[in-house]
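Hello, quick one for you while I still have it in my head. A protein chain has come my way and I'm curious about its shape. Can you walk me through what the C-alpha cells say about the fold? No rush at all, and the record is pasted right below.
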Amino acid sequence: MNTIQVKKQAFLKEAGYFFETASVHANEGDLQTCAGLILKALDQERRAGGVGPQVLHLIKTK
C-alpha cells in the first residue's frame, strides 16, 4: 500500500469508530453525543475522499 491508500484507510477507520460509538450512544438515548459523533464521522469520510492528488480547474473568460 502506498501512503495515499494508508492515509485514506486511516480516515475511514476513524470514521468507522465514530459511527460505532454513535450507535452505542443512540441506543443509550444520548442523541446529542450521537449527533456530534456522526458529524465527526462524516468529516473523516470527507477527508478520506480528499486524499490524493488534487486538480484545480481554472476557467478563463473570453
In short: The mean pLDDT is 90. The chain has one domain: 3-49. Residues 3-28 form the longest helix (26 residues).
